[in-house]
Specification:
By secondary structure, the chain is an alpha/beta fold. The protein has helices at 14-22, 34-41, 61-66, 80-90, 102-105, 108-114, 128-142, 175-180, 231-235, 253-263, 279-287, 295-303, 310-318, 332-343, 386-403, 418-430, and strands at residues 3-7, 26-31, 47-51, 70-73, 93-96, 117-119, 146-158, 186-190, 193-197, 207-213, 216-224, 242-250, 352-363, 368-378, 411-413, 436-441.
């Protein structure tokens, strides 16, 4: 029986682990909170929970990996290179769901030399987005066409009936990661021009996006997701008009989070002297006023926005102007994370939703095609969230394919090769993650 070790026991691990158990693998779940690992495994005879904290016992990584055939890192992204290094030292394959960073990319030559697969970007975004994009791109290029415009949007959102707070958002994965993504730089091509976006201006680059959800045309908004331009090389295209990868939210998120960031609530450095203070006290401190009287007016004046506008209203609803006591964390982003989790988590039985949509313009010698590829997936009430399934299952499928010798391409790789994505998409569809494609010819 092949043995897999999964590092991490967070919000996207359960579906991943259950898939591997269902397909006959022994799975060790290594987590600093062993009770979470026990809950995920639920007493399965082929599951082993393990207490492990990579920040405390990094020297044990290789010892653990040596006893398994493959390691899956579902830890925060900064630990992936550490796990990858241990895998290379032990000659074991690795799967992650996160973006390939420079430190990971630097391991490519060694991985190829040792015949080790370091398979990255195997979630939903990145992951399913790559696979479904390449499915269209390879078809177009195989028919002699050229992609002249590519847009891709993806977002994890509350299902329409669970969209019941002013921010239009609830957390189905790493809350801190969601917030800090609002500080990322962006880069894209639009109207044949490359645009570079500093992190502090990210939410100024917002476009309306309409998607059919449950038979209703739903108004969303999209903003840049990091640097889109390297994907011209990854996807083997160079669309001269539009090259854009973006994040989706319900309308109003971007305007509100822009102001939250401007106040300083996304700061990652610690703030001293907060003992016994309130959220209003910290908001006042961040904008440089001496007290919390008429704080909404002072905040609006500081930001240059209307005191009775929707952004101030959202911050009032969230409690950033209220007298709630601050948690123990010191960094504003961690205080905000804890507070948002209290007010913006899913209730029992509520569904989340993943929306992924690509739009292409493909030029052929005799026609132009406008192609739309869409995935809309809902969580299962009382079961796995859509985020859990759409992030965890692609990675689990990759683990299975590697250990069953159905995929063998050593190096630092992402899921853009046909020999992987074709059977992977077929398997995901079998698991209920469905895709639709619409082609209009002009």
């Amino acid at each position: 029986m092949k043995r897999v070790v999964v590092f991490g026991a967070g919000l996207v691990v359960r579906a991943h682990v259950r898939y591997l158990l269902d397909h006959g693998f022994h799975v060790t779940v290594a987590s600093r909170t062993v009770s979470k690992a026990e809950d995920i495994l639920d007493g399965h005879p082929n599951g082993t929970p393990m207490a492990f904290d990579v920040t405390v016992e990094p020297e044990k990584l290789e010892e653990i990996i040596a006893k398994h055939d493959l390691a899956v890192s579902l830890l925060p992204w900064q630990f992936h290179p550490q796990v990858a290094r241990a895998c290379l030292n032990q000659g074991k394959h690795m799967v992650t769901t996160s973006y390939v960073k420079e430190e990971m990319a630097a391991l490519d030559a060694e991985a190829k030399e040792k015949g080790v697969i370091l398979f990255n970007e195997l979630g939903v975004d990145p992951g399913i987005d790559h696979m479904t994009a390449m499915q269209v791109i390879d078809r177009v290029q195989g028919e002699g066409g050229e992609i002249t415009s590519f847009q891709s949007y993806c977002g994890g959102l509350p299902a329409p009936e669970a969209n019941d707070n002013p921010f239009g958002y609830k957390f189905s994965w790493s809350p801190r990661g969601v917030l800090l993504a609002g500080l990322n730089n962006g880069k894209y091509r639009r109207d044949a021009k490359v645009v570079e976006v500093p992190g502090q201006e990210l939410f100024d680059h917002v476009w309306p996006v309409t998607v059919g959800i449950d038979g209703t045309e739903t108004a969303l908004e999209g903003y840049p997701n990091r640097d889109s331009m390297p994907y011209t090389e990854t996807y083997g295209i160079d669309p001269h008009d539009v090259m854009f990868r973006g994040t989706l939210r319900f309308r109003g998120w971007c305007a509100a989070m822009k102001q939250v960031a401007r106040i300083g609530w996304l700061r990652t450095d610690g703030v001293e002297g907060l003992e016994g203070k309130t959220f209003a006290d910290l908001t006042a401190l961040l904008i440089g006023v001496d007290d919390t009287s008429n704080l909404a007016d002072k905040l609006a004046s500081h930001l240059g926005i209307a005191a009775d506008g929707p952004e101030i209203s959202k911050m009032e609803w969230l409690g950033l102007l209220g007298d709630g006591p601050l948690p123990d964390e010191k960094a504003p982003v961690d205080l905000l994370t804890a507070h948002m989790l209290e007010r913006m988590s899913y209730n029992e039985g509520e569904r989340d939703m993943l929306v992924l949509q690509h739009t292409f313009v493909a030029e052929f010698s005799d026609r132009t095609e406008h192609i739309t590829s869409t995935m809309i997936d809902f969580g299962i009430p009382g079961g796995d969230s859509s985020m859990n399934r759409t992030v965890g299952l692609p990675a689990a499928v990759a683990v299975r394919f590697i250990l069953e010798d159905r995929f063998n391409q050593p190096g630092v790789v992402v899921p853009v090769m046909k020999e992987f994505y074709e059977p992977a998409i077929e398997e995901l569809e079998r698991l209920g993650i469905q895709f639709t494609e619409e082609v209009k010819t002009v």
